[in-house]
Design goal:
Blueprint: H1 8-24, E1 35-38, E2 41-44, E3 47-53, E4 61-67, E5 76-80, E6 93-96, E7 99-103, E8 107-112, E9 119-123, E10 126-132, E11 135-141, E12 148-154, E13 161-174, E14 177-182, E15 185-190, E16 196-201, E17 205-213, E18 216-227, E19 233-244, E20 250-255, E21 265-272, E22 275-282, E23 288-295, E24 302-306, E25 313-320, E26 323-329, E27 334-341, E28 348-357, E29 363-366, E30 369-373, E31 378-382
Antiparallel strand pairs: 1-6, 2-3, 3-4, 4-5, 6-7, 7-8, 8-9, 10-11, 11-12, 12-13, 13-14, 14-15, 15-16, 17-18, 18-19, 19-20, 21-22, 22-23, 23-24, 25-26, 26-27, 27-28, 29-30, 30-31
């Protein structure tokens, strides 16, 4: 039986999770250091700029600000970020100089940190990939919302240029390149659009996730044994995590033995401080996910945590210093936020639950504080 007709719900959830992980990990991209990025919250000086609400509610998501040590009642509404379901709770916001940049189903906008001088920069369904130098790099989302072109424009919305086009499903900005997945190929395009290089091309490959760390890119791939005439994968599958450096040299970090697609399935979760974090699905005892880490240079993997006791799968995670903050996603209930040390100890369950179901989870860590949009307010937890 073809893979696309088997366990369809599970595969779709995993695919969407992988598409969103790059956007919701909370890890800063290797772009211009003067452009701050947040999934939920950005702190500049003593002021917080953050999202409040959720996309499927009547009021949608709003962007608000307040002093970091002030009460929530002192919030100042800056603008409404979205109005329908094309933009979910995890879309990033960017801050550069005294302006905030964001994208939604209608376009890309710039608004002053004081809530004034809101200006549309681009019209159309979009998602910002990153900001580098004096340019914004973003996706122009197509009808199915999973494929897009990559465009760049100036911070004022001028000189709009398509630098990569086609059935692109994932992209991340690293140094002077944007790495992206296009069907059964993996590419990078330079920020000026002059060089577009194919790094991998194989009709048996299913590319699942991209993460940046420094100037390197990390990629998760499922390698199937056969592909049908209609493009569906089937047969035994090998799971792999690899690294590309700026010389385009690929290094395999993990390669599993061929087997059934759902057995020992690997999902890349984060890269931080010389370690690659990933989860493995196990069918034992009803099925659960174990979280592991391996050095970015390769070597032995270390087991961190099993979700068997937490009734769910490891969703998005953020690694900050010695701490891991993880959303344990469930099939029928909102995700629950846990935090624990990178060796899997001091596991603490928070009272924060996702404003959305399953994979739509986003949070940031600033200093030693977790910031999370519960849908009603900005939640905070001190890591200790």
């Amino acid at each position: 039986m073809l893979i696309q007709n088997k366990n369809r719900k599970k595969l779709l959830s995993i695919f969407l999770c992988c598409v969103l992980m790059t956007l919701t990990s909370g890890t800063a991209q290797a772009a211009d250091s003067s452009a701050a990025k947040g999934s939920v919250c950005i702190k500049k000086g003593k002021t917080l700029y953050y999202k409040k609400g959720k996309s499927k509610s009547k009021d949608g998501i709003t962007l608000v600000s307040r002093k970091a040590n002030a009460k929530a009642s002192s919030e100042k509404k800056l603008t409404k970020l979205n109005g329908d379901n094309y933009v979910n709770d995890t879309d990033d916001i960017y801050l550069k100089n005294n302006n905030i940049y964001y994208g939604n189903q209608k376009g890309i906008y710039r608004i002053g940190t004081n809530g004034k001088h809101k200006k549309p920069l681009y019209k159309g369904k979009t998602k910002i990939i990153g900001i580098s130098g004096n340019y914004i790099y973003f996706s122009r989302i197509k009808a199915n919302r999973l494929e897009y072109d990559i465009i760049r424009m100036t911070m004022s919305g001028k000189k709009q240029t398509t630098i990569a086009a086609g059935h692109i499903t994932d992209a991340t900005l690293v140094n002077n390149r944007i790495y992206y997945i296009k069907g059964k190929t993996f590419h990078y395009v330079t920020l000026n659009g002059k060089t577009d290089k194919t790094l991998l091309s194989n009709r048996l490959y299913l590319y699942k996730a991209l993460f940046a760390n420094g100037t390197d890119i990390y990629l998760s791939i499922d390698i199937f044994d056969h592909v049908s005439e209609s493009g569906g994968w089937y047969g035994p599958v090998t799971h792999k995590i690899c690294r590309f450096d700026q010389n385009d040299t690929m290094t395999d970090l993990i390669v599993t033995e061929p087997g059934e697609s759902c057995k020992n399935e690997i999902s890349l979760k984060a890269v931080s401080d010389g370690m690659v974090y990933y989860s493995i699905f196990s069918e034992t005892e009803g099925g659960h996910y174990d979280l592991y880490k391996i050095p970015t240079t390769g070597g032995n993997s270390t087991h961190i945590l099993s979700t068997l006791s937490y009734d769910g799968m490891v969703g998005s995670i953020v690694v900050k210093g010695k701490w891991i903050v993880a959303a344990i996603d469930r099939d029928t209930n909102p995700a629950v936020i846990y935090y624990f040390t990178t060796d899997g100890k001091k596991v603490t369950k928070t009272n924060i639950k996702s404003a959305s179901y399953n994979i739509k989870t986003a949070f940031d860590i600033i200093g030693n504080t977790i910031y999370y949009n519960s849908g009603k307010k900005l939640e905070t937890i001190k890591l200790n």
